[in-house]
Amino acid sequence: MKVATSRVQRSQEERDKLVEKYLPLVRYVVARLPVTMPATLDRDDFFSVGVLGLMHAAATYDPTRGASFKTFAYTAIRGAILDEIRLHD
């Protein structure tokens, strides 16, 4: 059985605009993480990983699934940061 996926194609310019608009969300997520950081990582590392999560969210967001982009991006940013913490733990 083939599962249909509705993927919205965005131009690079549209993705860049989403990333620029929601870049402050990355700092917000990093500031709210109640974790003890591994000695090998600092908040700037988390910010960098969070930006990668935001870029991934901008590329894969599908508005037909019902979530706002901000909610989707928050989850992607937080998930990318937590994955990085797990990697270094």
Radius of gyration: 14 Å
- Tally of alpha and pi helices: 3
Question: Low-confidence runs (pLDDT<50, min 5 residues)?
Answer: 1-6
Query: Which outline best applies?
Result: elongated
> What is the terminal-to-terminal distance?
39 Å
Q: What is the N-to-C order of secondary-structure elements (H for helix, E for strand)?
A: HHH
Kindly state the percentage of residues in helix: 55-70%
Query: How is the biggest beta sheet arranged?
Result: none
Q: Please identify the structural class as seen in this structure.
A: mainly alpha
How many beta-strand segments?
Answer: 0
Which band does the percent of strand residues land in?
under 5%
Instruction: Give the overall pLDDT as a whole number.
Output: 85
Structure explained in plain terms:
The chain has 89 residues and is mainly α. It has helices at 12-32, 43-60, 69-88. The N and C termini lie far apart (39 Å).
SSE layout and pairing:
Layout: H1 12-32, H2 43-60, H3 69-88
Helix pairs in contact: 1-2, 1-3, 2-3
A few lines on this structure:
The chain is mainly alpha-helical. Helices cover 66% and strands 0% of the residues.
For this entry, give a set of tags.
89 residues, mainly alpha, elongated
